[in-house]
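=== How it folds ===
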Amino acid sequence: MRTILATLVLAVALGAAAVDHPEAPFFNDGRPEVVLGAYFNEAGTDSLMEFEGDSLLVYLVMWNAGLRGEGDVAALEYKIELPDGIHLAKDTLPEYSHLCIGTVLKGFSQTLEKRPGHGLLVETLHLVRIGPVAKDARIRVLPHPETQLLQWVAMPGGPGTVRKYQMLGRDAILNPELTTALESWKPLRSQ
């Protein structure tokens, strides 16, 4: 029953966006926008790293969702792009992730047991080195390729009250040359 409900929630919440591209707004209210970022620690605070080993973990963490009373996070969609020299060995979803469609590298839609979205761990990527990794190599958080949106869904009153919102993607940077990395480290807005 839980899987059927999660499937219906995902279809209602994200499926409609693929059909008619309704405008999922940014807040633009002077407060921090909702962000899905790639980080090198589970706390979601370190996004710069000198990569010297053969493997690393990257944590996808969501910030600022639900702080305006829009409700808990019920679903989201995104895509991850890895730099040359890095390969995804596996990804791990938290226990509160229910239904997922797609792959993280080609476009990923995910439903969650409704959770507050401030410091929310969405996924853990287990990455391995397969070749040289350039300076300022980026692990990018991008819009889903089908909808062209980097979005999340809240259902403040249950499945009948679906609200979609856009979020910013924040890259993680490997082997940073700080003078260039910090100048170009800007969040990405979906279209």
About this structure: The chain has two helices and 14 strands.
